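Ticket #4471: structure export looks truncated?
Reporter: QA, pipeline team
Priority: medium

Steps to reproduce: submit the single chain below to the structure queue and open the exported record.
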Amino acid sequence: MSTFFYISESLNIGIHSGASYCILEGTRSLFDSNHEECLREIYEGYDVGMGGVTLEELDECCYNYFYQKCKAAMNSFPDSEHAGGMAPNLIAGIMAKWGELLEILRKDPRYKAG
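Actual output as written to the record:
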């Protein structure tokens, strides 16, 4: 089973549920209380079991905040408690999918490097 990331009409990716769980929960854990509305917009469908997240209607600020937190979560994942018991090849597979997601997120016109 996969989790679908609907970024825009032309940018989408499906990621195996195990990897997507690591991505989404690692990213969620880095959101601060000033971005609760953004967090809710992103995770609303996922949290009710709809099988994905929709980023299409996010404003530029929320979109880039998600990107920044997603990238930070990826960078810290190999040393995280969650990755602690995983085989190295499994961690590498999750990191590869995470990298693919970040690459696709950078293709959206809302993305601003910085």
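Status: closed, not a bug. The export was complete when the record was re-opened. Leaving a note from the reviewer for reference: The helical segments are 17-28, 36-47, 60-76, 88-107.
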